[in-house]
Design brief:
This protein is α+β, with helices and mostly antiparallel strands and 252 residues long. It has ten helices and five strands. The chain is globular.
Length: 252
């Protein structure tokens, strides 16, 4: 083989090696970019999960975090109902008192503020109550809190299963609730937009010493005794008396 042939052969074998080195450098660079993007995404989601961002329409004390989700504003009596999406006792209360609360709303005597808490996560382990409460707050952004919570109660699994950590289940419940923009809802849930708000609600409830959910307050005062001793008729009577008291106090 001539020297010319040898030189030609050397050039031909070196070119593929240089090309593979270029490909390797490019692939490494692409992998680094992807890794940085994934890390940034994780940091952003972690921040969203701790930031206290109240859903639309939430109310609260002046200067404090807006933790209550109102159903109807500006009436004489405010009922505040503390409930835990994973709690069977909360579900039982919600279903037993649904008609009574609807009548009180229709009467014009009462508005209802719902406070979502998550003490069942500590009781049973896991994070299902937190996930469900955050999803309910995302539904509140679209003024669909009550229909979404109705689906939570209808399809609440056994608390020990912690099934509300399943995003598909929460998405299915949003579809059943109806009139929810699913892209916006799922983005809110996936980005953990309301988890910080839920955590604040639970921490304030734990510090209040109100006990186990469900808890009902009438104009900021807990209903005497436990909710186990309460009846729909008694609740209606207490609201009526409070409305009369407020009206009398407002007279000149």
């Amino acid at each position: 083989m001539s020297d010319g042939d040898g030189k030609a052969t050397g050039k031909g074998s070196g070119a593929p090696r240089r090309n593979w080195r270029l490909y390797g450098v490019a692939a490494l660079g692409f992998a680094l970019v992807c890794g940085v993007a994934a890390t940034v995404g994780q940091i952003a989601r972690a921040h969203q999960a701790t930031a206290v961002s109240a859903p639309k329409g939430a109310v609260g004390h002046s200067g404090g975090t807006q933790l209550d989700l109102p159903v109807r504003p500006t009436v004489p009596v405010t009922l505040t109902v503390y409930e835990d999406p994973r709690s069977p006792q909360s579900r039982e209360f919600a279903q037993r008192y649904a008609d009574t609360l609807a009548r009180l709303l229709a009467s014009g005597q009462a508005q209802i503020n719902y406070r979502l808490v998550t003490q069942s996560d500590k009781q049973y382990g896991g994070s299902g109550a937190t996930e469900a409460a955050a999803a309910a707050a995302c539904a509140q952004d679209q003024k669909r809190f009550a229909p979404f919570m109705d689906q939570i109660w209808r399809h609440q699994p056994a608390p020990a299963k912690d099934a509300f950590t399943d995003r598909k289940l929460l998405s299915d419940l949003a579809k059943k609730a109806g009139k929810i923009n699913h892209d916006s809802f799922e983005m809110c849930v996936d980005r953990s937009d309301r988890k910080g708000w839920v955590a604040r609600s639970q921490s304030e409830f734990a510090a209040s010493g109100l006990g186990e959910v469900p808890v009902v307050e009438i104009n900021g005062r807990p209903v005497p005794g436990s909710t186990a001793q309460l009846t729909p008729g008694k609740l209606s009577s207490l609201v009526h008396k409070e409305a009369q008291r407020v009206a009398a106090a407002a007279k000149p």
